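Archive transcription. Copying these from loose printouts into the bound notebook so they stop getting lost. Printout 1 of 2:
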Amino acid sequence: MRQYEITFIIDPVLPGDEANKAAKSYETLLSEEGASIVNVDNMGLKQLAYPINKKNSGVYKCIEFQSEHGAMIPKVELAMRRDERIMRFLTVKLDKYAVKYNEDKRNGLIGSAKKSKDSDKKDSKDGKPAYRVAKDDLTLIEGVGPKASKLLTTAGINTYAKLSGATPSEIKEILSKGGPAFKTMDPGTWPDQAQLAADGKWSQLNAMKEKLVGGKAIGEEE
């Protein structure tokens, strides 16, 4: 069974409970078309990286679902494209690493700071409760996929700040441990992208990413 997720942004000025009704209608459509809903993430109102339809924020929703072939996806995307309530959407097929990442995130192992397993029994040396350090989503960096993100996180680079402080050669050395396929990756722009993310300069980061493919400048010679 294949697993997908569709993330969409709903117009924030919809009256009453209309935003939730819009999201629910797509859960229903997916179910009616044979998909099995795995999880619905109501991320709420968030600031947009750049204005859309003269709006600077939107209501974010993400539906994770399973389907044998994903045959219903074109129908769902067409409905969203015609729906004036939907500002943007993106459908992604998840590999096993992304599926595991989402499971860990739902279980509180990734994302916001959580108490460590033994924090109820033992505090840190300064007397404060021990908490797990929050991780940034490195896959927002152009060129970094779930597998590369896992390699970086395993090596201790789990935040934008840490990635921005690493040199391309250091990053390549970490990636090389993932096998031959990773040795050809070019992380030259990753620290600069990560610095923009660390500074919260999302519009500048998106503008930079539009000029990149796989982390490299479009048209750049091998």
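Printout 2 of 2:
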Amino acid sequence: MLIGGFVPFSLIDYPPHTSCVVFTQGCNFRCPYCHNPELIAMGSGQRFLLKPFFDFLSERRGKLDAVVVTGGEPTLQEDLEEFVRRIAELGFAVKLDTNGSNPEVLRRLLKGGLVRAVAMDVKAPLERYAEATGGEGDGTTIEAVSRSIRLLLRSKVEYEFRTTVVKELLAPADVLAVGRLLKGAECYTLQRFVPAKTHDPRYADATSFSDAEFEELKTELSNRGIRKVVVR
């Protein structure tokens, strides 16, 4: 595993569970608003020392419920399945955060019962993926993202789809277009963009929608077949 960061305790990454968070290094997308730009490059992390990590987990049995594996993009890691399997064998739930670009890896994790929950980022309407991801919007990427959406919609695990709402990049109509892809979904979370460090410095002072705009979107998305819409 190539790891860019580790948080030993969190109450916000997999609520209501207590968790630790592993940040994998490397991402195949270059989203301009990404707030973890240091995790994008594949070669800048460090090899994760597995023994100290699993010793840590063994000591946290009964104190932590889960491990959140996020990134970067975790499905780029060649040994992800083995890593997740070892965590699950210790009795911890595993939540995966993914951009949905590797549906075959996601399929194997779901089929093997290795993840308890999945959060998938849907960046934009499919026809605008290249703009939202810094260039990854060809037919292969679009089909991969579409397949991952279908896998989760049919799955039995807890899942949510998420879109980070950057007003300079997405209009309300774009969010509704994403919602059409997610019809029947259990949960769709609209994440307010918070100005901070970004991959593209031009987005450092970008904005998000108003409260009124979010409320209108919640109503429209709920009326279009999404069971739970959350603004965070």
